[in-house]
Amino acid sequence: MTTTTTAPTSTTVLDATGVTMRFGGLTAVRDVDLKVNTGEIVGLIGPNGAGKTTFFNCLTGLYVPTEGKVAYKGTVLPPKPHLVTQAGIARTFQNIRLFANMTVLENVLVGRHTRTKEGLWSALLRLPGFKRAEEASRARAMELLEFTGLAAKADHLARNLPYGEQRKLEIARALASEPGLLLLDEPTAGMNPQETRAAEELIFAIRDKGIAVLVIEHDIRFIMNLCDRVAVLVQGEKIVEGPAEVVQADERVIAAYLGEPFEGAPGKEEAAEVEAAEAEADAQSTTEGDEK
Fold first, then answer.
1. How do residues 175-233 score in pLDDT, each as one tens digit?
2. Residues 123, 127, 130, 135, Cα dihedral to 10°
3. Strand 41-45 to strand 229-234: parallel, antiparallel, or no bridges (unpaired)?
4. b (16+ CB within 10 A) / e for 82-91
5. 262 pLDDT higher than 70
6. Where are the alpha helices (DSSP H) in the chain?
7. What are phi and psi of 64, to 5 degrees?
8. Where would you tag: which of 79, 165, 220, 259 has the fewest CB atoms within 10 A of its CB?
9. Domain chopping of the chain, boundaries
10. Average confidence score pLDDT of the chain
């Protein structure tokens, strides 16, 4: 008797099509398509000024793409960060953005806000429904701290954590919104080899929980060991996408990382302009967030 097993079908979690982002007359991201499926870890790499973080910002609603669309599980996302989070996409940032004077546990509880349904009056009057929701959020936050190895430091101030543990806390806070897709912007930046290995194991564990992962990273070895697929951006354009061994062998990728021009590649001046435009847009969005 022959037994036939059916492999689980992979569904598309993220579908970005034709994403273009212009700052005035400067194009930072040009006509980029990218899909991420359930059970996948996908890497996004490229030299400085390639438009990686700008593309991330388009995916998460921080920027409104000039052209193209971003869909999560078949639904086009509104260009509002909190609505993108509610839909099921969470992210971390290249520069750590924790609440330094709040405890580790409190930082994770902040990430639960999109999944709590109790209103203002329930909170002010401390009604039974609010108390139950508060207890459930606290229990879930402690589960995530256990998962990331930070449970023993739940009552520590975030600012007192070592750098590698602050990165873990950012991930725990992102996971608190119960995402189906986690976007990690340079999760190993500034880490030593031991911390990098721990980050790799944590990302694999996140994937094993059924959460799809999209990672920006400069550490090429880390990305190639971690990811099922890798896409390469060079000056805002996706030049290649595929398994690690295919990407590593691509002459255009090698040329981009060695600083050697290839046919159609933009010059250093254009790269510098893209970096400057991204920095200005990030500063503007940060200022607007502070004013709110």
1. 999 999 999 999 998 888 999 999 999 999 999 999 999 999 888 889 999 999 999 99
2. 120
3. parallel
4. eebbebbbbb
5. no
6. 52-59, 81-87, 104-110, 120-124, 128-147, 163-175, 193-208, 220-226, 244-249, 251-258, 268-291
7. -95, 115
8. 259
9. 10-88+179-286, 96-173
10. 84
Q: Residues in the chain, how many?
A: 292
Tokens of 125: 């009057």
Spell out the residues 6+ positions from residue 277 whose beta carbon is closer than 8 angstroms to its own.
Answer: 23, 24, 26, 28
CA distances for 258 relative to 46, 211, 273, angstroms: 11, 34, 20
Superfamily designation of domain 10-88+179-286: P-loop containing nucleotide triphosphate hydrolases (3.40.50.300)
- The two three-digit tokens of residue 57, written as one number: 């910002």
**Paired tokens of 239:** 């030049």
Cβ atoms 81, 268 nearer than 8 A? no
Three-state secondary structure call for residue 30: strand
Edge-to-edge strands, sheet with 181-185: 89-91, 181-185, 212-216, 41-45, 229-234, 237-242
The Cα angle at residue 96 between residues 106 and 291, in degrees rounded to 5: 80
